[in-house]
Amino acid sequence: MRLYAISDLHLSFKGNRDALSDLDPHIYLNDGLIICGDVGEKAEHLDLAFKTATATFKQVFWVPGNHELYTMHSDADGPKGEDRYMACVKVAREWNVKTPEDDFVIWEGDGGPCIIALIFTLYDYSFRPEHISREDAVKWAEEEGVLATDEILLHPHPYSTRDAWCEALCQRFENKLQDAMAKNPGIPTILVNHWPLRQDLVKLWNIPRFSIWCGTIKTEQWHTKFNAKVVVSGHLHVRRTDWIDGVRFEECSLGYPRQWKEAEKMGCDINQFLREILPGPAVPEGGIAPTVWRRFG
To answer: Where are any strands of DSSP class E within the chain?
Structure first.
């Protein structure tokens, strides 16, 4: 009874849809799967992901990424912002997939008990150098030709800005985490969020200034504050494992087809990109270890 995770399936790409169909069955082992955001931009992408995942895993968990929140030009009159998010939650519930809107689940399988804390924080442009103001953050990124599609397609409705939505989300999930810890003293958490919780985990060599769309400094210490055993994220399309303060951080993106094509040529399929979250490896001596860059899964 193991818990796995994968992120950034990006099912708008046929190569990734084909890859998803190769998932090995885990359902008879009672294994669970976390889908850590960026499934795709349309309800049909969520339907495909959840249909496949629930047919192959006993329990499935999902948190939104920025791509699920996009209001595409072809659906300009569709829901925006928080309404778009809740439309995604509705699809997940049709497949009995757990979301950040549900009560946290206590994992009783291998490596447990642990509280699987599905959270949704968005970002507030605070992953930037100290000398760059919030007002200049997007302009600073544009100086190197970097502009996230979010600026066009991710609406903050009903909030005035994405920053304001992020602030409200962080406060809400901080309260939810505090309540969960009070009700379950001593039980560690598995923190699951699409965006990295720490700025020092954002290493984007080709587009470093994309960092402003990658999280918020408000969550920097949540791994210790909320007794995390593992922190699971995606978004960066840079698979890595880090140990900080005795906590394991797992970036578990699949990414766009071109980003894992080399691994595919080496004989890897989607099953090699499933990251084992629990039970997982033992904590290293001293609680820290060098980053492991997981190029091939």
So the answer is: 3-6, 32-35, 59-62, 105-107, 114-118, 189-192, 228-233, 240-244, 247-251, 275-278, 289-293
Domain ranges for the chain, please list them: 3-293
* Cα 250 → chain centroid: 10
> Is-contact 15 9, C-beta < 8 A?
no
Tell me the per-residue pLDDT of 102-153, one tens digit each, with 9 for 90 and over. Answer: 999 999 999 999 999 999 999 999 999 999 999 999 999 999 999 999 999 9
Which stretches within the chain are classed as H helix? 14-20, 43-56, 82-94, 137-142, 150-153, 162-183, 222-225, 257-265
Strand order in the sheet with 114-118: 105-107, 114-118, 189-192, 228-233, 247-251, 240-244, 289-293
Second-level CATH architecture of 3-293:
4-Layer Sandwich (3.60)
- pLDDT at 4 > cutoff 90: yes
CB atoms within 10 A of CB 136: 13
Dihedral sign from CA coordinates of 42, 239, 214, 209: negative
What is the rounded distance in angstroms from the CA atom of residue 277 to the CA atom of residue 191? 11
Locate 68 and state its tokens: 């699920």
